[in-house]
Design brief:
It is a single chain. This protein has 3 domains: 60 residues, no CATH class; 112 residues, Tetrahydropterin Synthase, Chain A, CATH 3.30.479.30; 40 residues, no CATH class. A 3-stranded antiparallel β-sheet has the order 3-2-5. It has a 3-stranded antiparallel β-sheet with strand order 6-9-10. Helix 3 packs across helix 5. With 301 residues, it is of the alpha+beta class. 48% of the residues lie in helices and 24% in strands.
Length: 301
Amino acid sequence: MLRWTLSLLMLGLLGYCATGIFQVNAGELAVVQRFGRVYRICGPGLHLGLPWGLDRVTYVPLQQQEIHIGYQAGEERVLEVAPPGQLLTGDDNLVNLQATVFFRPNPDEVADYVLHRERIEPLIVRATEAALADVVATQPIQEILLNRARHLEPALHRRLVAYLRPYRLGVIVEAVTLGTPQPPEEVAEEFEATTVAMSQAARLLESTRMEAELARSRARQEAQAVLTQAENDKREKIARALAQAYRHRELWRSLSEAPDPHQAVRAYYVRELAKILRTLQLRRLSDGPVDFYLVAPSEER
């Protein structure tokens, strides 16, 4: 009888010691707490520790998690109480927003994640609500509705990370996305009509801007063409003037080097006058007994 009792005790002791053997799967970490204090962090594989009651092993999956915060369509509400996610904009309007926070445990701070895991989600929810209120309060409602709040996501992500950092929760906030903003249900139709009108005005403004830009582009091209033509005309006139000045200098040199310069000048003017006279003709116009004579350019050159 004593032998059976000792055997049972030995088997029980071996089974109790075997509780110190644990397996960590891929994609997760294990935090070992010995007497309540974090003793070590184990990666995937088979590990040996102290039996149950002395060591406490907490498995932490490293997969991404998500939390939905803010406005939930279709929920029943008390009229006297503002629904979750209803925020005040920068121009004193109300808008309903829902945010989705994507986070995962930080492998380098997994011990903090285990120690604070009971309050991680409540803190993320409160911090996201505060960040949403801060970011939305800086924007007019037109910007939020027309852009579908997408432009607020980077600022919201930065603000949320800054709010959570002092709490050392051991999480990495990977992204924050915003759902389509909705006006309060009581004024949804008026907001929708206003949004449609604003969208049409924005499209008209963009079309006008594009037409103005096209007109400016055409005007610049035409102005450039006029400037180019003027520059070409200027160069052509300068070239003709230089050529004419060169011919005059050559003529003056040839006349001044003649044996009798005065006779050479007179002969030159006679030749030029003869050229001019050859280009003219004398026409007679009769009006009764009176005849008129008109000097006109010749038809034959």
